[in-house]
Amino acid sequence: MADRSAPSCHLRLEWVYGYRGHQCRNNLYYTAAKEIVYFVAGVGVVYSPREHRQKFYLGHQDDIISLALHPERVLVATGQVGKEPYICVWDSYTVQTVSVLKDVHTHGIACLAFDLDGQRLVSVGLDSKNTVCVWDWRKGKLLSMAPGHTDRIFDISWDLYQPNKLVSCGVKHIKFWSLCGNSLTPKRGVFGKTGDLQTILCLACARDEVTYSGALNGDIYVWKGINLVRTIQGAHAAGIFSMNACEEGFATGGRDGCVRLWDLNFKPITVIDLRETDQGYKGLSVRSVCWRGDHILVGTQDSEIFEIVVHERNKPFLLMQGHCEGELWALAVHPTKPLAMTGSDDRSVRIWSLIDHALIARCNMEEPIRCAAVSTDGIHLALGMKDGSFTVLRVRDMTEVVHIKDRKEAIHELKYSPDGNFLAVGSNDSSVDIYGVVQRYKKVGECIGSLSFITHMDWSSDSKYLQTNDGNGRRLFYRMPGGKEVTNKEELKGIQWASWTCVSGLEVNGIWPKYSDINDINSVDANFIGQVMVTADDYGIVKLFRYPCLRKGAKFKKYLGHSAHVTNVRWSHDHQWVVSIGGADHSVFQWKFVPDRKLKDNLHIAPQESLVDSNSDESDSDQSDVPELDSEIEQETQITYRRQVYKEDLPQLKEQCKEKRKSAASKRRERAPGNSIRLHFVHGYRGYDCRSNLFYTQTGEIVYHVAAVGVVYNRQQNTQRFYLGHDDDILCLAIHPLKDYVATGQVGRDSSIHIWDTETIKPLSVLKGYHQYGVCAVDFSADGKRLASVGIDDNHTIVLWDWKKGEKLSAVRGSKDKIFVVKINPYMPDKLITVGIKHMKFWRRAGGGLIGRKGCIGALGRTDTMMCAVYGWTEEMAFSGTSTGDVCIWRDVFLIKTVKAHDGPVFSMHALEKGFVTGGKDGVVALWDDTFERCLKTYAIKRAALAPGSKGLLLEDNPSIRAISLGHGHILVGTKNGEILEVDKSGPITLLVQGHMEGEVWGLATHPHLPICATVSDDKTLRIWDLSPSHCMLAVRKLKKGGRCCCFSPDGKALAVGLNDGSFLIVNADTLEDLVSFQHRKDVISEIRFSPGAGKYLAVASCDNFVDIYNVMSSKRVGICKGASSYITHMDWDIRGKLLQVNTGAKEQLFFEAPRGKKQTIPSLEVEKIGWASWTSVLGSCCEGIWPIIGEVTDVTASCLTSDSKVLATGDDFGFVKLFRYPAKGKFGKFKRYVAHSTHVTNVRWTYDDSLLVTVGGADTSLMLWTYEMEGHRDSRQCDSEESDLDSEEDGGYDSDVTRENEINYTIKALSTNIRPMFGIKPHLQQKEPTLDERQGVVRGSRPPVSRALPQPEKLQTNNVGKKKRPIEDLILELVFGYRGKDCRNNVHYLNDGADVIYHTASVGILYNVATGSQSFYQEHNDDILCLTVNQHPKFTNIVATGQETQQICQLQLLLFTCGMQ
Q1: Phi, psi at residue 1392, to the nearest 5°?
Q2: Residue 924: helix, strand or coil by DSSP?
Q3: Could you say which of 17, 785, 1223, 1267 would form a disulfide bridge with 588 (CB–CB 3.0 to 4.6 Å)?
Q4: Distance in angstroms (rounded) separating the CA atoms of residues 896 and 914
């Protein structure tokens, strides 16, 4: 079978030719080590001119477009484009990530700047608002954020002489920002009469509030404060793109190709015109300058980097060159020398030396170049042009040999034959022309089989055949040189190909992902000797595959660096290097090929880190090299935790049913019952899809979870206490190092993690907002301050929290496949590991992100699926358990050895002070020494080992172990079968807790006169439970099929059980042995009921719409009830045993006479008069009120009436257990509601004496017992229930004023545009300058003065500066009448010992002096103030906070101000 694994050799980036000059500026700096830092494509480059060496930062996955250098000049911040762009702060020495800032910007990050001490970083986004953000970059924390401007911002800088001040500039604006608290407030620069309003491209801040800025017309504008005070005209002849401040002064660079140096007062020192130097050229445009000492760095639009030494300024040194703007497609390698040739849409062809890493020749052509080829002898270079012509040059001196144009469309591919006699030229006209080299390139043949453009070609080794690929993905063969198509398969069989660059063909099947467009892969090149090939695709990825690569979806190694599409890739002549070129990033990458044998020597060198690992994630199709998944793990990975409706959707759903609510509110509704229930005991433990979720607490109690309940179990007293803060399935649990707090994570649309105290059962913190669908793993750090969590969204997001503050510290996408465990390093809380399906990753925190590295397996094997992990006795040691039963031992990220520990997966692992304990699917607990060298002891979980006094029964020997924990001299074990066992170190085992296994539990019956109940489940077991204080399972029996219903006979001696295959049994209630069994149906038996009294008849309802009636004594079927149009859901007998009430899935309430089964029609009034032996029906007028307002969305699945017929208990699909008064007539009755089950409650039953309510949850497998408490019985302890959602408006009792205020909608006028924009200058601070409207003489009669509507779009206006200007009169607020009392409260306060009164009205805060009657005002708000408070702390006298309404309904802008009103 073809090997589908990734090749063991790899590529290492060695050199990048080029520099990103186009569309970027200020992106070139000297570091502290005198190296040069810049970027190209998606790579940050640190270049040492002394050693001519490059280092690469590979943390981005798309084009980098902005860069800032930290004031200490070691750290660099870079920002990228993309849908979810992020900023990386990295170290220029080690090229490792220090911090990642993400989740705020969209589209891209246009500019970046560090503040003076380097603690904060400001960034500007490319979104429509050009959002400005200020970060505490080390913590990855956003400090402040504000919309920047309506148009592009080109530069931003901190004022290095005033803390908390920034300046930004861009299209026709400059803004001066102040950061106060977490609010950024801008003031627009006033151009006044000093200079024209125009686009500002760059800026630098100086002392005394002076700012220098470079304008589009080449002037320099000098600002003092926010006012333009002077201009330096003609500083450059065209736009000034870059300005750099240093100790000596300022350097500017412009579109005119000049660099000018200025002193600290911006007096000119010198000008350097790069166009006039030896290396210069017409049209050179400077995009970036950096002046440091006597050296100046200059970056140009056309991807060059110059270094100028000040005293030899007319001899700039060219450090770096690359192609200019325009797509780069042409690439060829020299057949005998280490040279690469590239040609681009910039019309240049360039020759690069792969040894010297330098450009050695360049020639400009007439047309854009699309492809290139070098003749076999290395003498000729052929270039295919975009206009359909091709040119042949001599490589030696780049002189033209011949220029031929036979085609109208672009030449996309050309190749010389191996014998050097022919040149094949493939064009977009779908044809290949063959030219004779010796006959001065005379056309000798033509191949015309294709229907689409020619993309790739290869010659056979004997030069007799040519294969082509076209845009339709067809592969064709031609005989050379004539060009006749070959279709005979026999003739093609033996052909040896001289090269392989085609993307279709059997040999390269494996390079295609399973679902991809035929043009995704742009280029392929095979290295026949090394048996590897390299591909280039549209996603910016270079991949390395084995060659040949026959089966689709083969594994590969992938390398990032190019940003968009990689257009071409080739091996060098000696296969030492791979050269790849980027289309839009027009960069040339040179990769060193590292074969297998060298890899082994390199293992001690850490692989260069990157946010994406080379050993790709995406290539995990059904690889040959990964063992079959264990059935149990397979099952678990297929569980979906998605819900159609989540509990958090309830408020919205109710909102949608507004009309119904209104009509319900107008009618008098039945009160909720006075009696209540309280959760008393839960049978069950969630083991089938969870692990390591069972621990001893500080006090020796046991904490675990089942359904939506956190359980704290006291094993001495056999009692439980419950944490009921969750409202859906809990999927994971972790305990704090001090063993007093617990973290639990649940399923939910926006799922939450609760941290709660096991003593008080009170929540300490709830974390929400980052995980979708659910949380599947949590872990505390060793100091207990941090918490790591993993979500079950598609990316299995990993989040690191400061849980006490409820603050997200860092987040990252974990893996496409399921992650089972996350563990924080106990010695270094910034490091963690995650394990999962074919996944073992080591993460370290970097600001707001996490940087991950895959575990390096080396020659020891393949990445297996890992099920559990722990850290060892030092910070770099980690241990993981695999799905095949091995324990892997890791040092740092390297696998050092594996130890066989179990047969089948190792599901749980626990680290002790000296040694480890593991548990596996084989049902064995093993104790190990601290190096995993020796297994010290094993315990097999068997029935025979159960201690004599142990209550309950073990279902099977050697159950799969899912959780292990140690403490108090015992080992605590949780099994897949839902059992919790305590193993004594000496061997005996005690069973503490058990419940049903995986599968839905529906069948529930309570005994007619004993405190016991029976359950039957899809897990194929029938169980009898003791409901008295001993709370244990009395008996269990395995069934051949799962079951959905059961019922005790009236005397309690027999038990009937309905199974899912249409059969049913009657068993002895004590021994569970068969008495009789029948099968008349094929579908699930959904309900089964003995008639009351002697229990003569048994009614058996099935999902094929029938009820069969059997005579128990004669064991014969005596009647069939027909007429239901859907499956039967509920059934009840009347007291006489003569009438049967039936509910169906179509919500029909039907009646049948027993024993024959004749259908009866009974009016609803009569139904109420009939005495029913039991009431479990959910339909009819007596229980109309139990259906919720959102009854269309959710079903009431079960009900049961107390024997005094006063209280009806129901269970529904939302997981709620509710109590209603009976009869519940009228719609939407009031109720008491209790949450503990997770999704649907499938059945509810009262015990014979109504002392307990027993409920079962479908998929949560739990059996819950609730004590029934009479009215007036109130425990001091908190009530577990949310007393019914008695919606406040339904209770009436609102005062009319309160009602009115409650209904005020502050969003109707919420200004689609702010009437008073936040930016700008207060009138009393403004220079007298006319508005734009006045300047243009626009009369605004067309719009009311205080319209809150959207402004009409202005016609495009030119800036008529020369017009006559009229002055604005200034207005100053003197007095305000009024006080906002209509809908506010507590908003008047005394200040200064009663001398002043503070209050608000409209958008003004008012300080009223009682003695003089004068007012002073706080006017920073721009909309109605709604609330006001005064700080009472003696330290903060006269500090007032006011909150306003604003565009976002939810956001109250709190402004703090000091009274003395600034």
Answers
A1: 50, 55
A2: strand
A3: 17
A4: 20
